[in-house]
Amino acid sequence: MSSVLIIGASSDMAKALARKYAAEGYDLLLAGRNLDELALFATDIRIRYSVAVESLSFDVLDFESHQTFYEGIETKPEGVVVAVGYLGDQALSQKVFSEAQLIINTNYTGIVSILNIIADDFETRKHGFVIGISSVAGDRGRKSNYQYGSAKAALTAYLSGLRNRLYASKVHVLTVKPGFVNTQMTQDMDLPAPLTLEPESVAEDIYKAQQKQRDILYTKWIWRWIMKIIVLIPELVFKRLSL
Q1: Which of 39, 80, 140, 167 is most buried as measured by Cβ atoms within 10 A of its Cβ?
Q2: pTM of the predicted model as reported, rounded to 2 decimal places
Q3: Which CATH number fits domain 3-238: 3.40.50.2000, 3.40.190.290, 3.40.50.720, 3.90.1150.10?
Q4: 242, pLDDT greater than 90
């Protein structure tokens, strides 16, 4: 059976995606830093869905280890989902560069490092799919989270270029732009209920979009139109807004 590599597999969104792909019969490779947590989750997935699950140690910030990590996977996956994310502290990142660097490296640089390696393999095999979870925050910079948003904007551009590159090799690249999602990362935020999804709903949307080979997914769908409006606001007006 085909397998899916999920990078950043400890996140709520990644776990929801793991359950969805397992329910559809895919074997799983769960990659992340917390192997104890991943091992427990892997056991639960095996029992519930009767699929093969392997947990792997992976640190998105340890760039030098990424080649060895991927080469160590004996049977290469059909697809990869990158669900790594770090919201960070915007106020701190404006004063302490190490926080800005952590936001950028987690949400962009480290993802580029591992996807470059995986893309080479998929391109050679002329088969596979890549799902990169970006964010609506990358569609326009806002003072409340522009460090995070700028990293996600860079990731969106990277995935666009990767999609262009791999199209001829029949490798599908899906860019996911979630809006508000009820996860541990957003637990301290006062999210508007009508615009907020549970991770399981996002996972359903992502799976369907990947199966249909869509290029870009906004979830909830209404975020596509919300962000179109925000992007169209003239800079002269936008810079005066408190967003």
Answers
A1: 80
A2: 0.93
A3: 3.40.50.720
A4: no
